């Protein structure tokens, strides 16, 4: 195990190597997609989206209309009144007071109105209802972590349909931006500072959340799944409560398949399966190997080593040329079943 960064990937089914076939007949997650309702905007899936889309559409049409009003006469005048000879004199008319007042006043009124509409939308997005459910979001290169009110921590965002949700966000390393296009949400996620935003999902659906601020080599893969589920009993399949009770899964996964999914979510950007070096060493042939560490020690890659590398990643840094960086995030939030799944997955990487 090495030090390095992590990233979720678009689909758990996209892995390669022995583990990809290690769970025959197991259900795979669908690829992450963002549904589009028009050529310009994604599907509107939150109460916040309606006002945002109305303001965006209004601004778009104002821009188109004024573009035509300005550019069309400009082109016509340039053609119609171009200078035809060296002897032609320019017209002495230099201004028209009433026209100038008109074309100053109308855009000013429109801009004030557009600012007011945008400001109201922004202000409303910053003040969450008192009964909003709070979820803590942590951005790290290159993964998202979500902590739910019951203490559950996982790498996917799940919310109940029709209930206000407040996101309390911070970063462990650099500036990220948490964005869910279908909810019309986007806010910076900053180290040593909390930022917040809230939303209320209106459709039962799955979509993608992404990082919208360039944060490094793995930025484009900093995606995670967003699931909107109906509220209900924790024993009823398909409900938000059951999803949370199953560790952010619609139903419990076998260890190998669970480990494969965790690899896709938090390991793939740093550890390959084909023997190539990324930020950290490859997982190929890792299990049972005597691994040389940067401090000169040698350790056996077994269950204890894997667990220690996940919860205290700086303790055993693998030797490399050049040296591997000590930048793997602490994954102590993983539950025992998550670690057991990762161990089962590593055993299959021959």
Low-confidence stretches: 2-27
CATH superfamily of the largest domain: Cupredoxins -  blue copper proteins
Our estimate of the beta-strand percent is 15-25%
Oligomer: single chain
| Total of helices | 6
How many domains would you count in the coordinates?
Answer: 3
Mean pLDDT: 85
The tally of beta strands, per DSSP, is 12
Succession of helices and strands: HHEEEEEEEEEEHHEEHH
Main beta sheet: strand number and arrangement? 5 strands, mixed
Helical proportion? Answer: 25-40%
Structure, described:
By secondary structure, the chain is α+β, with helices and mostly antiparallel strands. It folds into three domains: 12-25 and 254-347, Cytochrome Bc1 Complex, Chain D, domain 2, CATH 1.10.760; 47-78 and 96-126; 133-245, Cupredoxins -  blue copper proteins (Immunoglobulin-like), CATH 2.60.40.420. It contains six helices and twelve strands. The protein has helices at 47-80, 97-126, 240-245, 255-266, 303-311, 336-347; strands at residues 133-140, 143-147, 153-154, 157-160, 164-171, 176-180, 185-189, 195-200, 205-211, 223-229, 290-292, 298-300. The two termini are 15 Å apart.
């Amino acid at each position: 195990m090495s030090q390095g960064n992590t990233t979720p990937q678009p689909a758990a089914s996209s892995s390669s190597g022995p583990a990809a076939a290690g769970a025959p007949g197991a259900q795979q997650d669908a690829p992450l997609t963002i549904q589009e309702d028009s050529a310009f905007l994604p599907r509107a899936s939150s109460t916040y989206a309606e006002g945002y889309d109305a303001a965006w559409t209004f601004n778009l049409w104002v821009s188109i209309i004024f573009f035509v009003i300005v550019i069309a006469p400009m082109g016509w005048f340039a053609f119609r009144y171009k200078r035809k000879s060296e002897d032609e004199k320019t017209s002495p008319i230099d201004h028209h007071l009433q026209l100038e007042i008109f074309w100053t006043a109308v855009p000013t009124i429109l801009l004030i109105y557009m600012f007011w509409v945008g400001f109201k939308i922004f202000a409303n997005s910053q003040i969450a209802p008192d009964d909003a459910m709070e979820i803590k979001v942590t951005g790290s290169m290159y993964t998202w972590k979500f902590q739910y009110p019951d203490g559950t921590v996982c790498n996917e965002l799940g919310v109940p349909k029709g209930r206000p949700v407040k996101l309390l966000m911070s970063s462990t390393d650099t500036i990220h931006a948490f964005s869910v296009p279908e909810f019309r949400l986007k806010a910076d996620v900053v180290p040593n500072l909390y930022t917040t935003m809230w939303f209320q999902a209106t459709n039962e659906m799955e979509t993608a959340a992404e990082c919208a601020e360039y944060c490094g080599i793995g930025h484009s893969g900093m995606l995670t799944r967003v699931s909107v589920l109906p509220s209900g009993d924790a024993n009823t399949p398909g409900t938000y409560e059951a999803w949370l009770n199953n560790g952010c899964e619609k139903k419990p996964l076998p260890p190998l398949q669970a480990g494969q999914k965790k690899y896709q979510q938090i390991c793939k950007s740093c550890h390959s399966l084909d023997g190539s070096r990324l930020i950290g060493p490859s997982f190929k042939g890792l299990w049972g190997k005597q691994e040389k560490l940067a401090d000169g020690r040698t350790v056996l890659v077994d269950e204890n080593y894997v667990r220690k590398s996940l919860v205290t990643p700086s303790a055993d840094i693998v030797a490399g040329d050049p040296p591997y960086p000590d930048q793997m995030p602490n994954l102590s939030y993983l539950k025992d079943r998550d670690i057991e799944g990762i161990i089962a997955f590593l055993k299959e990487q021959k």
